[in-house]
Amino acid sequence: MSRSVLVTGGNRGIGLAIAKAFTARGDRVAVTYRSGEPPAELLGVRCDVTRTEEVERAFEEVEAAHGPVEVLVANAGITRDGLLMRMPEEDFDAVLDTNLKGAFRVAKRASRGMMRARRGRIVLISSAVALAGEAGQTNYAASKAGLVGFGRSLAKELAPRNVTVNIVAPGLTSTDMTAALPEERIRQIVDQVPLGRAAEPQEIAHAVTFLASPEASYITGAVIPVDGGASMGH
């Protein structure tokens, strides 16, 4: 059955891979984006997830085109790395506002229709950094770790209405964002990965589409690391 799927931050990287994976399964997929251009084959809705009014407008546009959102993937996120002792407070706030509070805004809006329909899937994109930590990313790690507590609490709230909420925690993934890292830093990270390589975006997408599938109907409040084993034990 074709469903209405919304992927925030879905115009590149992991978000785009997730959107394409749902499209390949026959779903009606929309993506939000803040900059750049959306892929021609997807419904693109410009939206800054730090602005509640833009989130509301984006949902209205998606609902008009595809119907109420049945699967939400909260993927939009930013990084502003730096050591804590030199980190401006606005960098800490901006990362939490986008990565954590942005997920709050879109999940709150999506949950309305899901609760009425008594079905739905919400997948939050966290990070292996939330589990293992990373120097220079206190703001990012805090925002992504916050998604775990947020998602598990929301899972308990929505479970009586047959809505599941799960968290996927990717490790190092081959995207434009990671390509900008120095080669030496990439080698250092890969050396900590038991499988010895970075993930491909499609591998993250497989975990997300599984959690949104009928086969995952009895999974909620789970944190699924897709990181080659880098965060095992955390």
3D structure, described in words:
The N and C termini lie far apart (37 Å). The longest helix has 29 residues, at 89-117. Strands 3-2-1-4-5-6-7 form a seven-stranded parallel beta sheet, sandwiched between helices. The radius of gyration is 17 Å and the shape is globular. Helix 2 (52-66) packs parallel to helix 3. It is built from eight helices and seven strands. Helix 3 links the parallel strand 4 (71-74) and strand 5 (120-125). The protein has a single domain, classed as 3-Layer(aba) Sandwich (Rossmann fold), CATH 3.40.50.720. It is 45% helix and 15% strand. With 234 residues, the protein is of the alpha/beta class. The mean pLDDT is 95. It holds the Pfam family adh_short_C2.
Task: Give the topology.
Elements: E1 4-7, H1 13-24, E2 28-33, E3 43-46, H2 52-66, E4 71-74, H3 89-117, E5 120-125, H4 128-132, H5 138-158, E6 163-170, H6 176-179, H7 183-191, H8 201-211, E7 223-226
Parallel strand pairs: 1-2, 1-4, 2-3, 4-5, 5-6, 6-7
